[in-house]
């Protein structure tokens, strides 16, 4: 009997299926390796992972320490083996360090896996297991600076708001304060009052990362950057005569306290935070490109930060109406921003246009001081060019030397910044903003401040920033 000839088409199909299966298998292996190296800790440390809490049956929760080794959170064990989580600074680090009872927040949540993992030496682990003694968990050493945290905490005082301080060239968060706050050591006793329906203070909310506010005149950084991009050769030639009011069609934009700034060029209009000049300028902009610039500066975009945050909002579209254009140009309307986001924008400007990912954990070490895991600075990407960064720094420097930021003017160091007074309710005082960095020529510290109903950013928020700059540069 004659043998049938092989079917080339069938063989080709079999070969294609073989290649496809091999490719899928290779992809699965690669993803498995990626998951183990990159994603596994996030999954293990997920708040919904009930198994992680069972680690506490065998491990005493480790300590959380400041960058210079001061204890921010520790577990005290009494003679009967009872454990109490203790926070030496009471309320001062309440939001950023967080708590580990009633759920977990802040660094207690972010570092949960490390705090419940023990790397004591093997012999000691064996002895402890045989003696039914818990092993000591690893310690999380943060990027937080106690002196800067205290300066921010004291300067904000009893007012509602938030302060964030960070290094622009590394992304290290050095201070994070939110008020109203709560005494972390009294959390269990105060819990019912803190979560009561009639409580409108929001003490548990971390305003630094989750508080959304109209950015006010700090948004003029975005508007100015877009104008620079559309007019790279002649943006400094812009002129505007300010009478304290800007009338266009049926709309009127007022400068803060109806101040008449007179003849303004581009730099002076930014330095004096002239609403009329920026409203007029915005009418010349390509709204589609303005939207792109806002997106590049992380509006309507996930932020590269590991703790819970609210996403900032920018709603002006290319077909937006005149009133929305005028309002958005000066940071009003429906635009909203968090203090940490404002700090990131300032940090990118300070770092030549490159944003470093903000982070809070420097390294993890065992109880003997051996480093188990080290976290290194990571670049998020370029939010702008180095030339654009230099132009914005020039504008922000003018805010301090001749404009609304005089409260941070000093001979001890140079500051570049932007103030803001953000309206949110016609019957209430404005929110006060300041974002900036120092030294202006070689930035080392970025500060972002919001004071709810604080009035003028120059008079209320800038002095708070000054307290942090003074503390940092006096050491």
From TrEMBL:
Domain Penicillin-binding protein transpeptidase stretches: 161-469
Q: Which InterPro entries match?
A: Beta-lactam/transpept (IPR050515), Beta-lactam/transpept-like (IPR012338), PBP_dimer_sf (IPR036138), PBPA_dimer (IPR054120), PCN-bd_Tpept (IPR001460)
Q: Which residues form the Penicillin binding protein A dimerisation domain?
A: 61-140
| Superkingdom of the source species | Bacteria
Please give the start and end residues of each transmembrane region: 12-36
Instruction: Say if the entry is tagged with keyword Glycoprotein.
Output: no
Keyword list, A-Z: Membrane, Transmembrane, Transmembrane helix
Name of the protein this chain belongs to = Penicillin-binding protein 2
Q: Which organism is it from?
A: Hungatella hominis
């Amino acid at each position: 009997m004659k043998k049938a000839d092989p079917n080339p088409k069938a063989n080709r199909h079999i070969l294609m299926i073989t290649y496809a299966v091999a490719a899928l298998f290779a992809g699965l292996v690669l993803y498995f390796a990626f998951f183990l190296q990159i994603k596994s800790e996030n999954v293990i440390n997920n708040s919904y992972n009930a198994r992680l809490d069972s680690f506490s049956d065998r491990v005493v929760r480790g300590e959380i320490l400041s960058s210079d080794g001061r204890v921010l959170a520790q577990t005290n064990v009494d003679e009967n083996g009872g454990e109490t989580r203790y926070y030496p600074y009471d309320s001062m680090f309440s939001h950023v360090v967080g708590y580990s009872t009633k759920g977990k927040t802040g660094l207690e949540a972010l570092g949960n896996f490390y705090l419940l993992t023990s790397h004591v030496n093997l012999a000691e682990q064996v002895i402890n297991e045989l003696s039914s003694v818990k092993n000591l968990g690893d310690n999380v050493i943060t990027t937080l600076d106690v002196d800067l945290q205290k300066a921010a905490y004291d300067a904000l005082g009893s007012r509602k708001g938030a302060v964030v301080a960070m290094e622009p060239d590394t992304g290290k968060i050095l201070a994070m304060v939110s008020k109203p706050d709560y005494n972390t050591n009294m959390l269990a006793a105060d819990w019912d009052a803190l979560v009561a329906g009639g409580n409108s203070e929001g003490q548990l909310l971390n305003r630094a990362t989750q508080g959304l506010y109209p950015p006010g005149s700090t948004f003029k950084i975005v508007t100015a950057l877009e104008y620079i991009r559309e007019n790279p050769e002649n943006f400094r030639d812009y002129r505007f005569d300010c009478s304290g009011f800007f009338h266009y069609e049926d709309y009127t934009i007022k400068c803060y306290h109806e101040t008449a700034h007179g003849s303004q060029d581009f730099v002076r209009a930014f330095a004096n935070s002239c609403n009329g000049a920026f409203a007029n300028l915005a009418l010349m902009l390509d709204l589609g490109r303005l939207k792109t610039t806002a997106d590049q500066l992380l509006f309507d975009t996930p932020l590269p930060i590991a703790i819970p945050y609210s996403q900032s909002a920018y709603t002006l579209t290319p077909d937006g109406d005149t009133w929305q254009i005028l309002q958005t140009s000066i940071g009003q309307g429906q635009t909203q921003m968090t203090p940490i986001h404002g700090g990131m924008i300032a940090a990118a400007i300070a770092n030549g246009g490159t944003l470093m990912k903000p982070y809070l954990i420097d390294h993890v070490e065992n109880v003997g001081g051996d480093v188990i895991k080290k976290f290194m600075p990571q670049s998020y990407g370029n939010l702008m060019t180095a030339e654009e960064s230099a132009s914005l720094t020039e504008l922000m420097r003018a805010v301090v030397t001749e404009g609304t930021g005089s409260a941070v003017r000093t001979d001890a160091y140079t500051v570049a910044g932007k103030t803001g007074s953000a309206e949110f309710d016609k019957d209430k005082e404005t929110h006060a903003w300041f974002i900036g960095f120092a030294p202006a020529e070689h930035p080392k510290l970025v500060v972002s401040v919001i004071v709810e109903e604080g009035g003028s950013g120059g008079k209320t928020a800038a002095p708070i920033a000054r307290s942090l700059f003074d503390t940092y540069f006096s050491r």
